[in-house]
Amino acid sequence: MIIALGVETSCDDTSCAVVREDGEALSNVVSSQTALHAKYGGVVPEIASRAHTERIMPVLDQALDEAGVALEDVDFICATKGPGLIGSLLVGLETAKGLAYAARKPLIPVNHIAGHLHSIFVGEDRAQMERFYPYLGLIVSGGHSSLVRCDAPGSYRELGVTLDDASGEVFDKVAQMLELGHPGGPIIDRLARDGDPHAFKFPRPVLTKAGYNFSFSGLKTAVRLCIEERGLDTILASKQMLADICASFQMAVVDVLLTKAERALKRERLERLAIVGGVACNGCLRQAARERLNGSDIRIPKPLLCTDNAAMVAAIGLARRKQDVAQDWAVNADSNLRLGK
Ligand code: KG4
Ligand code: ZN
Fold first, then answer.
1. How much is the average pLDDT of 320-333?
2. By alpha-carbon position, which residue is closest to atom 14 of ligand 1?
3. Structure pTM?
């Protein structure tokens, strides 16, 4: 059976994976740099690319070992071309290029967002995948918030994008305002479990003329004002108040995301929805999606496949491989790569 090696280094996770033609991930190794960036309150690009350089070969070895294959057994190599941090992307793409050249294997450059959209199919064969198309993709990550109509692997129509902060970024920034640590999404998710999502009335900017586009700056300002009004020390001294703010903020984000997704499903006459990207790990979003959109077939990957990983990169490469694409050894990383390119 054909197998693909995936390489992903677009942001702060170094990842290599081996995926088989029937969708099975034989390995999916992710080395997270969270601890390196935590003290800076966000990802530092220079530190990220240096860490990728140090980690990429050990991660590759581990991925091949766990899969029980050698580089020669791999049929082709897929690597993220963009979007992402340029210094980070270059490490993975150039490593993959070198491996492909030395081992005489085809190199398939992959769009990171297409990878996320495809993450729901890791573990599934082509027939299972084809049954799910067409579907609506809600991408919610640290760098992206968008709604995409997916008609086939590689065939996408962007319905809406974020006009300011991506949803993961809003979680991270609110966590920063509350001095909770980085990345903020998982921390807010945990604290919100003990909070009342109706305790604070935060705005839900969904009824504007923005259509399917997202805008979270108003929500962010509302949370900032709420913190200023009550005082950060007072909030941090009261476990309940902190949990209530987290739960109310989180519910506002989830409400916006699902209201737009619901609208897009209806207008595009789609029955199936995929929620992908790091924020798809969020407990409230996962539960609310199933409750509110119970007429739709909803797929949300397991957490390891929501955050950045190379299995999704290998899987979309497998789905899109063509018999005789000309090999472009001059392929370069593109930090602003658009979907469908
Ligand atoms: O997809 P991802 O790993 O990287 C990008 O491509 O951006 O997403 C990372 C983002 C971060 O902003 C992080 O705070 C958020 O996903 N995130 C969460 C949760 N887990 C990760 N946000 C909300 N709730 C979570 N449980
Ligand atoms: Zn991502």
1. 81
2. 185
3. 0.96
